[in-house]
Amino acid sequence: MNHRGSLSKLIYAGLIHLYPAEYYRLFGDELQQVFDAKLANPRQFGHQTKAGVWMNELCELPVNVLTEYLVLANPQMKGDLAMSANQRSRMFALSVLFPLVMAIVISLVNPRFMGILFTTGLGWLIVGSYALLLGVNAWLVLKRNLWRPGLLLLTTLTAILLILFGPALIRVGQAVPTAFTSAPTILIIALILIGLAFAVATLFSTSRPNANNRP
């Protein structure tokens, strides 16, 4: 075993301790074994290189950890079972209605602040991304009986951050000297890309079971 491979396994062994203690006790060894197998033969698991294995793990592990803590808080979310009508209504309120109501309230309290979103090109980009994220969440909850609450929560959080901080970042970009206007734009675009990445990951992850999430 080479030093690099040993270091990768050691790092991953530390990362999976982020899971809830009971989940780690039940599945920690199996998670480590699956990861070791992926490192030993990446192509067998659909990856071209060991770096690809790590990229996949770094994208999925935070979501899987968050999902398990949500399951710990609400055991009814456990497993791949379809959500009940009551659960769907709660998830719908969290993922779609809450961000939408929040945006409406903010626009009523400070119309000029929210109006920035509709008077700039970057603002329209934020509005379009926000609407897309809410649409994806609604489709997943109502049509697909989402069983990955962690990804849904991250997508919802991104949508909320876009509306909360988007107008402020645009105003900062308009107020500061030209040399600094790129920073707010980069932050906004980065947030949009993160939200879209969560949405795409959610779409793909709900089409098949996740071996890492439920060994």
Outline the structure in words:
Helix 4 packs antiparallel against helix 6 (121-143), helix 6 (121-143) packs antiparallel against helix 7 and helix 7 runs antiparallel to helix 8 (182-205). The protein has eight helices and no strands. The longest helix has 27 residues, at 149-175. The radius of gyration is 20 Å and the shape is globular. Residues 207-215 have low confidence and may be disordered. The chain has 215 residues and is an all-alpha fold. It has two domains: 3-73, no CATH class; 81-205, no CATH class.
Instruction: State the order of secondary-structure elements, H for helix, E for strand.
Output: HHHHHHHH
Number of strands: 0
Integer count of domains: 2
The average pLDDT is 77
Number of helices: 8
pLDDT below 50 for ≥5 consecutive residues: which ranges? 207-215
**Biggest sheet details:** none
Structural classification: mainly alpha
The shape is globular
Helix amount: over 70%
Cα(first) to Cα(last) distance is: 25 Å
Please give the radius of gyration in angstroms: 20 Å
What tags apply to this protein structure?
215 residues; disordered C terminus; 0% strand; mainly alpha
Q: Topology of this structure?
A:
Elements: H1 3-15, H2 21-40, H3 50-73, H4 85-109, H5 111-115, H6 121-143, H7 149-175, H8 182-205
Helix pairs in contact: 1-2, 3-7, 4-6, 4-7, 6-7, 6-8, 7-8
Put the structure in a nutshell:
The chain has 215 residues and is an all-alpha fold. It folds into 2 domains: 3-73, no CATH class; 81-205, no CATH class.
